[in-house]
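Translate sequence into structure tokens.
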Amino acid sequence: AQAVDDKKTVCVIRAIGTELIVELAAALQIGCRLAFLPPLGRSYLQKRLVLLEPEHISLDERNISLLSDVFREKILSAAGIENNMGNEKGGFFNYVSGRPVFAVFDSCTEKMPIINDIKSDTVYLGALRDGLIALGLGPGRIYAAPGFHFLETCPGIFLAGLLCGATYLHLTPQDIKENPRLVVEKKIDVFGVSRTVRDILLETPVNADGVWQTWFRNPAESADMDKWHHFSRRLNLLKSYSFNLRWDAAAGCNLF
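Result follows.
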């Protein structure tokens, strides 16, 4: 298979996890144009891949059946971008101002997909702003946001921590449902609470007093304020700072 290089578009079809983050780092090193999609079904992927026209696709072997024959031919032969680098010298790509880095699908247009190219200036400045100003991240600080919308947060949530030297703690709502104490076993400086995670922790509350320094939610999920107030009291979060934060990856990771 042809190697991935800085002239190619690569689509990574994976759930949020270690593999996705490794591929993000590898793509930034190569300089290719990168897109992310969750493995949500054959029709969902087909519409978006036709629009994107990627030269390469990276996905888990168990999800190959979600692709049509045309796109199966584009699957990277070795798992992951990091194993198909065209840069034999192993150096790092230098991004010039205005160069497209990510091709991001607008999360607000499910039926009629729209792609927005996010350029290097916006990626860099947006990640710094979100990490330093919105989340208050820095070296050694730990943050997490389980259950937030894939297309709204990816890749902005990872870049914010990467540029600030922070540690991203990967948790899923299912992880928390199976063991709610995962969210309080170690100090989490900034914790994003989705509505799904809130409801799980309301059923099996834990004491987060002194564990979460700050926590945030998506303002689009704030309609049932009584539940949010009850959540704060049940988890002893009345002394913790809280705020609203809404990523919009398609607009360059804007914060609210």
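Note: Strands lie at 9-13, 33-37, 56-59, 100-105, 115-119, 142-144, 167-168, 188-192, 212-217, 241-244.
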